[in-house]
Write a structure and sequence with these properties.
Largest sheet of chain B: none
Oligomer: heterodimer
Low-confidence stretches of chain B: none
Mean pLDDT of chain A: 92
Low-confidence stretches of chain A: none
Shape of chain B: elongated
Number of domains of chain B: 1
Radius of gyration of chain A: 29 Å
Distance between the termini of chain B: 36 Å
Largest sheet of chain A: 4 strands, mixed
Amino acid sequence: MSTGIRRSFIRSGVALLVGVALLTTLQGIVTVAAKSERWVGHWPNSSAVVGWATLWGACLAAGVAAWVVAAPRKGQYSQMLATASRPQGQVYGLALAAVGGGSLTGYLAVLGYVVQRTAPHATEGSLAVAELLPVAAWVVMAVGLGAAVGKLAPPMLAPILAALGPYLVYMWAIYADVYANRTFFSDLLAMDDSARDYLRLPTELLVAKAVMWACVGAALLLWVLRMRRASYVSTVAAGVAAAAAFLVAGVRVDVPRAYEAVCWSGAPRVCVDRAHHHIGQQYRRHVVAALGRLGAEMSTGVTVMQSAELFALAEKFTGTGDTAPTPVRLVVPVASRNTSPAHEIDPDRLTADTGFAVFLAPCLSHRAEQGHAGTQTGQRAAVALYHWWLSMHGLPTDGSNYPGEVATGPALAENPALAEFARQFGAMSDDSRVAWLAKRRPALLSCRLEPLA
Amino acid sequence: MTWIDKLWLGAQVKWAFIKARGITAPAAAAYVILWVAVTLASRFSVSALGLQFVPVGRAGLDTVSVLLMLLPAVIVSRCLWSRCPTVEATRSRPSQPSELLWSAVLGLGATASPLPAVPLLHDSIDPLAFVADWWLLLGVLLVLSGLTAVPIGVAASFAVIATFSTPNVVPWEANLLYNVDLAAQSAMVGAVLLTAGLLLVALRRRAA
């Protein structure tokens, strides 16, 4: 090859690498950022979320690989290449390596983004390298799949057909699991929806599926490059790795430490589990500030916790339960978008949930079953106070703060007396409101409040 | 030359014009098979996800079907461009009228092509949403390939679908591709894009 041709060959390879890397990074960051509430600040989830960058990233790599391999047939110069008797590796090697390199660079950039967002907040553990192995393996898989489709499919449709490939593999696994009603096939992919808050995937599974996908991709790639013997060996290795992955797919390992309760003493005492330790301080600030608006009396002897089962689970898994029980427990979940427990705090949602814990939770039916039955008037008064709470914080009163929320606005519109009570309560001065609530704290917490009695 | 010969010659010229745009028996067969694949994929996913809770005809298409629609869309967009522009450049007559006519004919055919596939859809899928998705997709593809080139248009259309299919990226109230409540609006947007795309392609007369 003359120097000029070689230089242009290398230049196009570099352009391919940079282009694929940029697009992979962009789509990866958008996809991963759209799930931020599931992972920011928590290393095990942060390590696993990089896999989601491969969902569209693998489609991109496969599409470009197919375009590279189908180009001679589309441009009608494949005969010319055949007469040149150049090994296939020399014809496609550089371009396919550029696609793979670009894809890998893109995933590394996504990993950089994830690390940069998690590192400042994380309090537990570190990056799980094993979770990243399937991501690297999907680079090989995507390039191999793309190259094979580029070789076989009509050149006009090859790139788009190859781009659909990884997505169809992903959806096939999801459907297969839905039909089988168990988690098995989706465990074999590079990305999954399993939260790593309290559980982790066995390392054997992560390694086995990484080897499996890398070998599948290598087998296809080597077949396209006409290295039949190596392709055969790779196929056999993929089969062995698949057998190993099938043995451990669907298995989850408990992380006992994640269930441990972490508490900050004070009034109120605030407790989260160790999996959410990284947002504990922020959670505490929010809750303390919100409860502070109801007066100091409302926070005395109160434990605010992230889930009702916090101490029971901590006892079960780590043997350390509630060391200093308090008379009142308020459950305020950490929820954001569709995730609960989340790793990011949605301030509005947390405020609404705090109001729910103080005013409405005492009136819940399961409390009634435990002999804490409130009165009808108590329930109505609770709705009116919750309405005031939402209005004071500028939150919607149409039941849209979280799924299953009572729509206080319409409820008050149907009951003028209750609306009047809510108005009078809102019109009180801060001091008299705090005094009113302090006097009726037992009634409020047992759902027996009498409106403006 | 008798009038029959003239008619025969005219038909042959028209047939050559159509064939130069890739309308061949394998392409037509592939087009039909791909539509069957799109509808079958929709049946499979609906039964897998157990959407029987949704009232009949109120479910949208799933991502697999929408992505598979890209394949017939690529065929349509490829058939808009001539395979031998250099030969056609030697015509004495201006080519614009015939390009516009071809865009209109193919555009009408493509617009109506999901209709025969509707009976194959699962009962729960809204036929309007199905047709609207196709118009939207083909419209985006034609506009983007009219502005750039077909391969870039295809890649960009894939990116548009990926954006609409990734949770939390496009708000549900604005998700024209999957929100069945917006089917009428997305059909309207799709029709506008489709018309714009066909006009753009016809006026550009660029080889694929």
